[in-house]
Design a protein that fits this description.
The chain has about 210 residues and is of the alpha+beta class. The chain has 7 helices and 9 strands; from the N terminus they run βαββββαβββααβααα. It has 2 domains: about 15-75, 2,3-Dihydroxybiphenyl 1,2-Dioxygenase, domain 1, CATH 3.10.180.10; about 90-210, Signal recognition particle alu RNA binding heterodimer, srp9/1. One of its GO terms (molecular function) is dioxygenase activity.
Length: about 210
Protein backbone atom coordinates (compact mmCIF):
# COMPACT_ATOMS: atom_id res chain seq x y z
CA UNK A 1 0.00 0.00 0.00
CA UNK A 2 2.91 2.31 0.73
CA UNK A 3 5.98 2.21 -1.49
CA UNK A 4 8.07 3.84 1.22
CA UNK A 5 9.93 0.97 2.90
CA UNK A 6 11.74 3.10 5.45
CA UNK A 7 10.85 2.00 8.97
CA UNK A 8 9.82 4.89 11.20
CA UNK A 9 8.07 5.24 14.52
CA UNK A 10 4.33 5.76 14.22
CA UNK A 11 3.32 9.13 15.64
CA UNK A 12 0.67 9.28 18.33
CA UNK A 13 -2.11 11.83 18.72
CA UNK A 14 -1.42 13.65 22.01
CA UNK A 15 -4.16 16.27 21.89
CA UNK A 16 -6.87 18.04 19.94
CA UNK A 17 -7.57 21.77 19.73
CA UNK A 18 -11.17 22.92 19.51
CA UNK A 19 -12.35 26.45 18.81
CA UNK A 20 -15.53 27.66 20.47
CA UNK A 21 -17.67 30.74 20.92
CA UNK A 22 -18.14 30.00 24.64
CA UNK A 23 -15.19 28.54 26.48
CA UNK A 24 -17.07 28.36 29.78
CA UNK A 25 -19.82 26.18 28.28
CA UNK A 26 -17.48 23.62 26.69
CA UNK A 27 -15.12 23.64 29.66
CA UNK A 28 -17.95 22.81 32.05
CA UNK A 29 -19.26 20.11 29.71
CA UNK A 30 -15.96 18.25 29.29
CA UNK A 31 -14.99 18.52 32.94
CA UNK A 32 -18.35 17.01 33.81
CA UNK A 33 -18.88 14.44 31.05
CA UNK A 34 -15.29 13.19 30.68
CA UNK A 35 -14.00 14.05 34.16
CA UNK A 36 -11.42 16.37 32.65
CA UNK A 37 -9.23 18.41 34.98
CA UNK A 38 -8.35 22.00 34.18
CA UNK A 39 -4.58 22.16 33.70
CA UNK A 40 -4.31 25.84 32.80
CA UNK A 41 -6.51 28.70 31.68
CA UNK A 42 -5.73 32.15 30.34
CA UNK A 43 -7.95 35.19 29.81
CA UNK A 44 -5.58 37.73 28.32
CA UNK A 45 -6.42 40.95 26.43
CA UNK A 46 -5.38 40.74 22.79
CA UNK A 47 -3.56 44.02 22.16
CA UNK A 48 -3.56 43.38 18.40
CA UNK A 49 -7.25 44.29 18.26
CA UNK A 50 -8.59 47.78 18.88
CA UNK A 51 -11.34 46.49 21.14
CA UNK A 52 -8.79 44.50 23.18
CA UNK A 53 -10.79 41.32 22.75
CA UNK A 54 -9.95 38.78 25.43
CA UNK A 55 -7.90 35.81 24.25
CA UNK A 56 -9.36 32.88 26.20
CA UNK A 57 -7.88 29.41 26.19
CA UNK A 58 -8.07 26.39 28.48
CA UNK A 59 -5.99 23.21 28.63
CA UNK A 60 -7.60 20.07 30.09
CA UNK A 61 -6.65 16.43 30.60
CA UNK A 62 -8.08 13.30 32.18
CA UNK A 63 -4.92 11.18 32.23
CA UNK A 64 -1.14 11.46 32.56
CA UNK A 65 -0.83 13.52 29.37
CA UNK A 66 -0.09 17.20 29.96
CA UNK A 67 -3.28 18.09 28.07
CA UNK A 68 -5.66 16.09 25.91
CA UNK A 69 -7.78 18.99 24.74
CA UNK A 70 -7.19 22.69 24.25
CA UNK A 71 -10.15 25.03 23.91
CA UNK A 72 -9.70 28.42 22.26
CA UNK A 73 -12.55 30.92 22.35
CA UNK A 74 -13.24 32.82 19.13
CA UNK A 75 -16.48 34.75 19.78
CA UNK A 76 -16.98 35.73 16.14
CA UNK A 77 -17.10 32.18 14.78
CA UNK A 78 -20.02 31.60 12.44
CA UNK A 79 -22.33 28.65 13.01
CA UNK A 80 -22.53 26.23 10.07
CA UNK A 81 -24.52 23.14 9.18
CA UNK A 82 -21.69 20.75 9.91
CA UNK A 83 -23.51 17.75 8.43
CA UNK A 84 -23.15 19.13 4.93
CA UNK A 85 -19.48 19.96 4.58
CA UNK A 86 -16.20 18.09 5.15
CA UNK A 87 -15.50 17.96 8.86
CA UNK A 88 -14.06 16.04 11.77
CA UNK A 89 -16.94 13.59 12.26
CA UNK A 90 -16.14 12.72 15.88
CA UNK A 91 -13.33 11.88 18.27
CA UNK A 92 -13.18 9.11 20.85
CA UNK A 93 -12.42 8.42 24.48
CA UNK A 94 -12.24 4.75 25.46
CA UNK A 95 -13.06 2.98 28.72
CA UNK A 96 -11.36 -0.25 29.82
CA UNK A 97 -14.65 -2.00 30.73
CA UNK A 98 -18.26 -1.70 29.61
CA UNK A 99 -19.43 -1.15 33.19
CA UNK A 100 -17.50 2.13 33.27
CA UNK A 101 -19.19 3.21 30.05
CA UNK A 102 -22.62 2.30 31.44
CA UNK A 103 -21.92 4.10 34.73
CA UNK A 104 -21.01 7.24 32.80
CA UNK A 105 -24.20 6.95 30.76
CA UNK A 106 -26.29 6.63 33.94
CA UNK A 107 -24.53 9.55 35.62
CA UNK A 108 -25.01 11.84 32.63
CA UNK A 109 -28.61 10.71 32.12
CA UNK A 110 -29.41 11.95 35.63
CA UNK A 111 -28.24 15.37 34.41
CA UNK A 112 -30.36 15.05 31.24
CA UNK A 113 -27.26 14.67 29.10
CA UNK A 114 -28.14 11.91 26.66
CA UNK A 115 -26.24 10.34 23.76
CA UNK A 116 -27.48 11.05 20.26
CA UNK A 117 -26.57 7.54 19.14
CA UNK A 118 -25.66 4.22 20.82
CA UNK A 119 -24.24 1.34 18.80
CA UNK A 120 -22.42 -1.98 18.82
CA UNK A 121 -20.21 -2.13 15.74
CA UNK A 122 -19.03 -5.70 16.45
CA UNK A 123 -15.63 -4.41 17.56
CA UNK A 124 -16.79 -1.88 20.14
CA UNK A 125 -19.81 -0.54 21.96
CA UNK A 126 -20.03 3.22 21.54
CA UNK A 127 -22.23 6.03 22.82
CA UNK A 128 -22.04 9.31 20.89
CA UNK A 129 -22.64 12.64 22.62
CA UNK A 130 -22.67 16.23 21.39
CA UNK A 131 -20.89 18.97 23.31
CA UNK A 132 -22.34 22.51 23.52
CA UNK A 133 -20.83 23.33 20.10
CA UNK A 134 -22.25 20.11 18.60
CA UNK A 135 -18.86 18.45 18.28
CA UNK A 136 -19.51 14.73 18.42
CA UNK A 137 -17.71 12.84 21.19
CA UNK A 138 -17.64 9.05 21.22
CA UNK A 139 -17.37 7.21 24.54
CA UNK A 140 -16.66 3.55 23.87
CA UNK A 141 -15.32 0.21 25.03
CA UNK A 142 -13.59 -2.54 23.05
CA UNK A 143 -15.98 -5.51 22.94
CA UNK A 144 -13.05 -7.92 22.81
CA UNK A 145 -11.13 -6.36 25.71
CA UNK A 146 -8.07 -7.15 23.60
CA UNK A 147 -6.96 -4.78 20.87
CA UNK A 148 -5.16 -7.48 18.84
CA UNK A 149 -8.20 -9.77 18.88
CA UNK A 150 -10.45 -6.87 17.96
CA UNK A 151 -8.24 -5.84 15.03
CA UNK A 152 -7.98 -9.43 13.82
CA UNK A 153 -11.75 -9.84 13.92
CA UNK A 154 -12.39 -6.70 11.87
CA UNK A 155 -9.75 -7.67 9.29
CA UNK A 156 -10.44 -11.39 8.87
CA UNK A 157 -13.78 -12.41 10.38
CA UNK A 158 -16.32 -13.68 7.79
CA UNK A 159 -19.10 -12.69 10.21
CA UNK A 160 -17.92 -9.08 10.22
CA UNK A 161 -17.48 -9.16 6.44
CA UNK A 162 -21.09 -10.33 6.04
CA UNK A 163 -22.53 -7.88 8.57
CA UNK A 164 -20.24 -4.89 9.20
CA UNK A 165 -23.04 -2.46 10.04
CA UNK A 166 -23.62 -1.10 13.50
CA UNK A 167 -26.46 -2.34 15.67
CA UNK A 168 -28.37 0.29 17.61
CA UNK A 169 -28.59 -0.48 21.33
CA UNK A 170 -30.57 0.79 24.30
CA UNK A 171 -28.14 1.57 27.16
CA UNK A 172 -30.84 1.10 29.81
CA UNK A 173 -31.44 -2.45 28.58
CA UNK A 174 -27.70 -3.11 28.70
CA UNK A 175 -27.57 -1.87 32.29
CA UNK A 176 -30.50 -4.10 33.27
CA UNK A 177 -28.85 -7.11 31.61
CA UNK A 178 -25.56 -6.52 33.42
CA UNK A 179 -27.41 -6.25 36.73
CA UNK A 180 -29.07 -9.58 35.90
CA UNK A 181 -25.64 -11.19 35.55
CA UNK A 182 -25.15 -11.17 31.78
CA UNK A 183 -21.42 -11.12 30.98
CA UNK A 184 -19.94 -8.40 28.75
CA UNK A 185 -19.26 -10.90 25.95
CA UNK A 186 -22.74 -12.44 26.16
CA UNK A 187 -24.13 -8.91 26.08
CA UNK A 188 -22.27 -8.31 22.82
CA UNK A 189 -23.42 -11.61 21.28
CA UNK A 190 -27.04 -10.95 22.19
CA UNK A 191 -26.87 -7.49 20.64
CA UNK A 192 -25.65 -9.07 17.41
CA UNK A 193 -28.56 -11.50 17.66
CA UNK A 194 -31.00 -8.59 17.69
CA UNK A 195 -31.59 -8.03 21.40
CA UNK A 196 -31.39 -4.78 23.39
CA UNK A 197 -32.49 -2.63 20.46
CA UNK A 198 -34.18 0.70 21.28
CA UNK A 199 -37.96 0.84 21.02
CA UNK A 200 -37.61 3.74 18.60
CA UNK A 201 -34.75 5.53 16.88
CA UNK A 202 -33.76 9.03 17.91
CA UNK A 203 -34.12 11.97 15.53
CA UNK A 204 -30.36 11.89 14.99
CA UNK A 205 -30.36 8.17 14.16
CA UNK A 206 -33.19 8.66 11.69
CA UNK A 207 -31.30 11.52 10.04
CA UNK A 208 -28.25 9.26 9.65
CA UNK A 209 -30.33 6.64 7.86
CA UNK A 210 -31.40 9.22 5.29
CA UNK A 211 -28.12 11.18 5.09
Amino acid sequence: MNANKVTTMRPRLPHLILTTTSIDAVLNWYCNALRMDLVHRTDMPDSKHEDEQLHKAAWVSNDETEHRLLFVELPKLAATDELHHPRLQHFTFEYPHIDELLKTYARLKEQRILPVQCTDSDAKTAFYYEDPDRNRVELSVDDYADRCASDEHVQYSPEFDESPMEYYVDPDQLIAARKAGVSPWELHERVRAGEFAPAKLSAFQLSQLHA
